[in-house]
Amino acid sequence: MTSHILRCVHLSTTRTYTGTSRALRHATASPCTQGSLYIRRSVHNPAEEANFTSIVDNSPDLVKSGRRHGPGIIILALIPITAFALGTWQVFRLGWKTELIARFEDRLIKPPLPLPPRIDPEAIKDFDYRKVYTTGRLCHEQEMLIGPRIHDGNDGFLVVTPLEREDGASTVLVNRGWIPRNKKSQADRKEGLPLGQVTIEGLLREPWKKNMFTPENRPELAQYYFPDVKQMAELTGSEAVWIEETMSPDLLKAYDREAQGIPIGRPAEVNLRNNHTQYIFTW
User: Fold this and answer.
1) What single DSSP character describes residue 184?
2) What is the pLDDT of residue 61?
3) Tell me, what's the pLDDT at 95?
4) What's the CA gap between 258 and 192, in Å, rounded?
5) What is d(CA 127, CA 168) in angstroms, rounded to the nearest whole number?
6) pTM, 2 dp
7) Contact 111, 248 (CB under 8 A)
8) C-alpha–C-alpha distance, residues 275 and 280, integer Å
9) H or E element: which one contains 77?
10) Which residue in 35, 81, 94, 277 has its CB near the most CB atoms, within 10 A?
11) How far apart are CA 143 and CA 154, in angstroms?
12) What percent of the chain is helix, strand and coil (3-state, nearest 5)?
């Protein structure tokens, strides 16, 4: 709609001044009706035009800025994807570790098996944590100490001794257990060096795997930092078979063994860590 305002303007007097470079026109306006001043003005309304289109009716136009996403956006997008992938992987790891521990614990409750005269190293993984027993002579002259190893807060070593068996049976490696550092010398632990035929009962275990932070063994200096079963077997002419001697948990007996330098064997239990549930919640 067009609105109109009436305006009457009366020019009453016009004077022109000459003689100078400036001209001044003086106009006075007098009202046409009752001293009121009216202005007639037309206000343009675009909505009244025939070809008018509202922005509400128009479809939005996508404008490409031409800028690529920076590395920060990409990293933020990868964080939830990575966390989900790691969490899923830990779920599978939890199932695998739980099943593995259950299989080992099932082997522990079975009665000990006599160790065969010859053992296929490839078959040991199928008997990991299986109780076995065997008889032979401990070769103390070929003893190897692995350390440092901590037991109840005390520093010491693991005593590894080849067991020489009779009747053509192979020699095997026996991890007899832990001794304190002050009993490192055999002269200080005569009670821990049994002579003659002995029967060893323990767990048949797979060879240990060295991690990247453990230094290499130095056999020429009698320094062993981890049980490299294959290396120790070659040094002693033994078969690459690793037996961990076990004993029943007994605090008083352990104190007595520590004082005499008799190796403290491990308990017959599965000592595998299973923290995958914690890792799942972490991711």
Assistant:
1) -
2) 67
3) 75
4) 10
5) 22
6) 0.66
7) no
8) 9
9) helix 71-108
10) 94
11) 21
12) 30, 20, 50
Question: For 218-242, what is each residue's pLDDT tens digit?
Answer: 999 999 999 999 999 999 999 999 9
Amino acid at 157: F
Residues 134 and 114: their CA atoms lie apart, in Å, by: 6
Structure tokens that stand for 198 in this block: 């002995």
**pLDDT for the residue numbered 256:** 94
Q: Which residue has the tokens 């939005």?
A: 60
- What lies within 8 Å, CB to CB, of 268 at 6+ separation is 108, 131, 203, 246
DSSP annotation of 121: G
Q: How far separated are the first and last CA of the chain, in Å rounded?
A: 67
Q: What count of other Cβ atoms lies within 10 Å of the Cβ of residue 78? A: 11
Rounded CA separation 162/170 (Å): 10
How far apart (Å, rounded) are the C-alpha atoms in residues 228 and 207?
Answer: 7
Q: Are 112 and 201 a contacting pair, CB within 8 Å?
A: yes
Token pair listed for 281: 């919640």
pLDDT digits 0-9 by tens, 152-167: 999 999 999 999 998 8
Using an 8 Å Cβ cutoff, are 79 and 38 in contact?
no
Phi and psi, residue 26, nearest 5°? -110, 125
Contact by Cβ (8 Å): 165, 112: no
Q: Decide: helix, strand or coil at residue 80.
A: helix
